[in-house]
Design brief:
By secondary structure, the chain is mainly alpha-helical. The longest helix is centred in the C-terminal third of the chain and has 14 residues, at 92-105. The chain has four helices and two strands, in the order E-H-E-H-H-H. A two-stranded antiparallel ribbon has the order 1-2. It has helices at residues 10-21, 40-51, 78-84, 92-105, and strands at residues 4-6, 37-39. It is 41% helix and 5% strand. The chain starts with a strand and ends in a 6-residue tail after the last helix. The chain is globular, with a radius of gyration of 17 Å.
C-alpha cells in the first residue's frame, strides 16, 4: 500500500486563519486546516511532471522501522468549511509548481 499524504500551501493556511480570526462562529472550537489527500506515489509523480525531470523507485518500508511509523493523518477540514466557507484553493500540482519555483529562485539560502 502507498501511504496517503496531503499538501497544502501556506496561502491557503493564511486565508483559513484570517477567516477564522474574523468569524464569531469559531470561538472555542478546534479546527483542522488541511488539503486534499493524495498518495505519496501521486505526489512524487506530479512533482516530476511539474519539474520536468527526476525519477524514483518504490522500495519496501523496512520492517524494523514499522514500530516507529506514525501512520497516516489526513486533516478533515469539513467543520472549518461549514463554519467559514473555507476550502483550499491551490491544488497539488499548482502547489508543487509554486514551491519548486520558490526554491529555485532562493536556493542559495537553502543549499
Amino acid at each position: 500500500a502507498v501511504d496517503e499524504t496531503y499538501g497544502i500551501m501556506y496561502n491557503d493556511v493564511v486565508e483559513a486563519l484570517v477567516l477564522m480570526g474574523g468569524s464569531n462562529k469559531v470561538w472555542g472550537k478546534i479546527y483542522n486546516i488541511g488539503g486534499t489527500p493524495t498518495s505519496l506515489l501521486d505526489f512524487v509523480t506530479n512533482a516530476i511532471k511539474v519539474y520536468g525531470k527526476g525519477e524514483f523507485e518504490v522500495v519496501s518500508f523496512p520492517s524494523e522501522r514499522q514500530k516507529i511509523e506514525i501512520g497516516n493523518y489526513i486533516a478533515d477540514y469539513t467543520r472549518l468549511s461549514k463554519d467559514t466557507g473555507w476550502k483550499p484553493k491551490i491544488d497539488i500540482k499548482e502547489g508543487i509548481d509554486k514551491t519548486l519555483k520558490f526554491y529555485e529562485k532562493y536556493k542559495e539560502h537553502y543549499w
